[in-house]
Amino acid sequence: MKVEVSTKYLPHITPLVVVVSGNNPPNPSTYIYFGQLNDNPPIVGVGMKEKRHTYSLIKELKDFTVNIVNEKILKEADRAGFVSGKKYNKGELINFSYESSTVINSPYIKKAPISYEVKLLGELKLFDHNLLYGEVVKIHAEDSYVIDGKVDLLKADIIVSSYHSTDYYKVEKRVGNWGISLKEK
Ligand SMILES: Cc1cc2nc3c(=O)[nH]c(=O)nc-3n(C[C@H](O)[C@H](O)[C@H](O)COP(=O)(O)O)c2cc1C
Q1: From ligand 1's centre to the CA of 77, what distance in Å?
Q2: For residues 54 and 27, is the Cβ–Cβ distance under 8 A?
Q3: Could you identify the atom of ligand 1 that is nearest to the CA of residue 82?
Q4: Contacts of 118 by beta carbon, 8 Å cutoff, 6+ apart
Q5: CA–centroid distance, residue 117 to ligand 1 (Å)
């Protein structure tokens, strides 16, 4: 039997967007509405409210980094989702160290298991959020999480969450791979 639940219960990977603000410190903020939208070129999109400081920065500076959250950086990632760069200097409040990106201006978070450098391509106005989408021009992954050139999602300790329940979960078990249905006799 199925019960109807709010669409807000959709599970998501929780990423983090960082934008460099001119000569000011980086402004990290947390986004649950995020996904890869195209393969070649790789395009990702973030669902963002226009009132976010990050929204204005991305529109002005035209790039951002997406930093996937794992347990190690969860507390700081959470904090970045509750304070706005409009009011606070988040560089002082949120304890991340950054690395310079290789292609874009915005820096990425050193301790994030995976970080994408993204160049803004466009925007789609939705309803209460806008989709800001861009091309991934570089990906950095922590080498201890990479096996045969692929990021091992178990090792990386990826966090998933949902907007409504507001709980954070860890991905802890591999249960198969694409094509398991084809092997069934
Ligand atoms: C776990 C989590 C997920 C969030 N997801 C989104 C989201 O998908 N879209 C959005 O516009 N805001 C989201 N927020 C809220 C922003 O992160 C928050 O308003 C932040 O303070 C914005 O910072 P800024 O004003 O410096 O950009 C989320 C917050 C948390 C804690």
Answers
A1: 10
A2: yes
A3: 21
A4: 44, 63, 64, 65, 66, 104, 134, 135, 136, 137
A5: 19
CATH topology of domain 7-183: Pnp Oxidase; Chain A (2.30.110)
**How many whole angstroms separate alpha carbon 37 and alpha carbon 32?**
15
pLDDT of the chain, 185 residues: tens digit per residue: 877 766 666 777 878 888 876 667 899 999 999 999 999 999 999 999 999 999 999 999 999 999 999 999 999 999 999 999 999 998 888 999 999 999 999 999 999 999 999 999 999 999 999 999 999 999 999 999 988 888 888 999 899 998 777 899 998 999 999 999 998 66
Give the bridge partners for 151, in sequence order.
146
Closest atom of ligand 1 to 34 CA is 8
Testing ligand 1's pocket by substitution, the residue of 16, 19, 29 carrying the most ligand atoms inside 8 A of its CB is: 29
- 3-state secondary structure labels for all residues of 103-137: CCCCCEECCCCEEEEEEEEEEEECCCCEEEEEEEE
pTM of the model: 0.94
CA of 2 to the centre of ligand 1 (A): 31
The position carrying tokens 């980086």 is 26
